[in-house]
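Exercise 7b. C-alpha cells:
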C-alpha cells in the first residue's frame, strides 16, 4: 500500500510540475474559442457566453480541475470585437492553483462575402499560488506509520506569483472552414515559486476546423466537422484530430490526441447543438502506460449565443458549429 502511494505521489509530482510550466488543456479545444485564439472575439457578430469544466485524471488524489468562462461581443460600426476570459486551474492535493483574467480586442477584415480575416490581441493578469503546508514528499514516509518525518525539500521563495502576459492570434474563415494561428505568452511570465527557475514558455498553435453538409435537408441538416490542431510549448508537442457529426440537435464526435512521443488519449464526445445553444460532454480514454493509476478525464462545455436585436443585415460567415 505504501509503495502504491509513493508511486502515485511520484506521478502527481511530475504532473504538477508539468501543469506549472504549461497551460491548462481542453480536449474540446474547439468549444473554448477565445481560449484557443483571441481573434475569435466577435467572430460570430453576436453576443456569446461560453463556460467549460474539466476534471482531469480523477483517479489521482486531488484531481486536476479547470474552470473556464468567456464572453465576447461584436461592434459592427467599428468592425471590432471585445472579449473577457477567466480561467482557474487547481492541481493536486497541495492546492496548487493558477488563475487568469484576460481582456481581448479583435478586428475583422471582410475580404469579400465568402472570406474574412480576424486579428486579435490579449492582455492577461495571472496569479499562481500553492499551499506549501499541504505538500508531502518521499522523505517524510515511515514504512509502517506513513507520513511522519519532516521534509528536507527547499521551501519556496514565494507562495504567490503575480504577472502580466500578452498573446496574439489570427484566423481566416469562410462558410465551410476556419483556420488560425495563435502565439501565447509573448512576455514569458515567471511561474516558479523559486526565484528565476521557471517561466511560462511561448506556446504556438495552428488549427483547422471544417463544416461540410452531408445532405440538403433544411429541417434536418446533417454535417460533419473535421478538426485538427498542433501545439508546441517549449519541449512539449501535441497534435490532436478528429471529427464531429451533427444532425440537429444531436452531436457525436471522436478525437485522437498524440503527444508526439506517445499516444495520449482517445476522446469521445456527445451532446446537443443548435444555432444558439450547445452542451457537450466528452470523456478521455487514457492511452498512456499510467492508465490504471490515473484513469480518464471528464469535460463539459456550455455555449450560449444571443442574437443581435438590431436590424442591420450582417454578412456573417458560418464557422464550425462548435463556435
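Sequence design result:
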Amino acid at each position: 500500500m505504501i509503495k502504491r502511494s509513493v508511486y502515485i505521489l511520484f506521478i502527481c509530482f511530475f504532473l504538477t510540475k508539468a501543469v506549472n510550466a504549461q497551460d491548462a488543456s481542453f480536449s474540446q479545444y474547439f468549444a473554448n474559442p477565445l481560449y484557443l485564439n483571441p481573434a475569435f472575439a466577435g467572430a460570430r457578430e453576436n453576443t456569446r457566453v461560453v463556460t467549460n469544466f474539466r476534471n482531469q485524471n480523477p483517479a489521482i488524489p486531488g484531481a486536476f480541475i479547470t474552470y473556464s468562462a468567456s464572453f465576447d461581443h461584436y461592434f459592427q460600426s467599428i468592425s471590432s470585437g471585445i472579449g473577457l476570459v477567466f480561467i482557474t486551474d487547481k492541481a493536486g492535493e497541495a492546492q496548487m492553483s493558477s488563475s487568469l483574467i484576460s481582456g481581448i480586442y479583435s478586428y475583422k477584415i471582410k475580404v469579400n462575402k465568402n472570406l474574412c480575416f480576424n486579428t486579435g490581441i490579449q492582455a492577461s493578469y495571472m496569479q499562481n499560488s500553492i499551499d506549501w503546508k499541504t505538500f508531502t514528499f518521499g522523505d517524510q514516509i515511515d514504512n509502517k506509520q506513513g507520513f511522519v518525518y519532516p521534509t528536507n525539500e527547499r521551501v519556496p521563495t514565494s507562495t504567490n506569483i503575480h504577472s502580466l502576459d500578452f498573446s496574439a492570434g489570427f484566423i481566416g474563415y469562410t462558410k465551410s472552414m476556419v483556420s488560425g494561428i495563435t502565439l501565447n505568452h509573448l512576455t514569458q511570465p515567471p511561474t516558479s515559486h523559486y526565484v528565476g527557475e521557471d517561466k511560462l514558455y511561448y506556446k504556438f498553435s495552428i488549427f483547422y476546423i471544417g463544416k461540410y453538409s452531408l445532405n440538403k435537408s433544411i429541417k434536418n441538416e446533417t454535417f460533419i466537422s473535421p478538426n485538427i490542431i498542433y501545439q508546441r510549448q517549449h519541449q512539449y508537442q501535441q497534435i490532436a484530430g478528429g471529427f464531429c457529426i451533427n444532425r440537429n440537435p444531436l452531436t457525436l464526435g471522436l478525437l485522437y490526441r498524440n503527444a508526439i512521443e506517445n499516444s495520449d488519449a482517445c476522446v469521445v464526445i456527445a451532446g446537443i447543438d443548435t444555432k444558439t445553444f450547445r452542451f457537450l460532454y466528452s470523456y478521455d480514454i487514457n492511452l498512456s502506460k499510467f492508465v490504471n493509476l490515473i484513469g480518464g478525464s471528464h469535460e463539459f462545455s456550455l455555449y450560449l449565443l444571443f442574437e443581435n436585436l438590431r436590424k442591420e443585415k450582417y454578412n456573417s460567415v458560418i464557422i464550425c458549429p462548435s463556435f
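Instructor comment: Residues 1-20, 317-321 have pLDDT under 50 and may be disordered. Residues 111 and 300 are 35 Å apart (CA to CA).
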